[in-house]
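Before going further, learn to read the protein records used in this course. Taken together, the tokens spell out the fold as the letters spell out the chain. A record is reproduced here so that you can trace the correspondence yourselves:

***
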Amino acid sequence: MGMKPVHLPEVGSTSDWIAERLSTHGVERLVAVAERQTNGKGRGGREWVSPPFVNVAASVAWKMPGSVDPPGLVTIAAGVALAECAREVCGVAAMIKYPNDLYVNGRKAGGILTERKVCGADVWAVIGVGVNVNTEAWMFPEDIGARATSLMIEAGRPVLREKLLASFVNKLEERLDSLANSGLDGILERSRQLSCVLGHEVTAEDAGETVRGVAVDIDNSGALLVKTRDGVVRRIISGETSVCAQNIRLAVST
């Protein structure tokens, strides 16, 4: 496809910016990249705060083929692309905390927010990504500093943001093409390999209910399967999860 970055010095939200242009010819070939977001969005409507000039905040729009639904499958594909590019560019053991967070050594380094948008007869996935790239420890707000990290901190050296973004966009295109043409199988297996929740006891929020058990798999619809203590397997569809054990440090082969 060949995506073209559009640099925005300041914007409310890169995802909102690109969503407003879904009827524009060629929007699927744009990557909206912002230095400063005044209304950056995280999961559950939470604000995503990022210092300017050190991190990556970007969004792309993908016209979803009829074979791909729900948008949670797109989040899985994007998560794989993000973890793989962090490993390739930074040499860190990046992993995925279901459904949408980038983790390194038990701390959050980034996240993905996928939103489903309808424009005329077309259905779009707007994929927003935020990555702590060159954030220094003192830059994190006090309330999240203990559980957040950056790729620079983990790699022990500054990271070229342009290189990271280019790698992510290339891998995202590959994974979305695979999702459209070949289905979820290859992406799902890679997502399992990169998961930092599978095999661990987790708590998961599902439709306002807290579920606790062992994360045993991710099924073909993109749902996390959690086996509770009474032996029942619950399907968590893109619900918020947290690993019960602290300071889990995992690495898998690249």
Observations:
- The chain has five helices and twelve strands.
- The mean pLDDT is 87.
- The two ends are 25 Å apart (CA to CA).
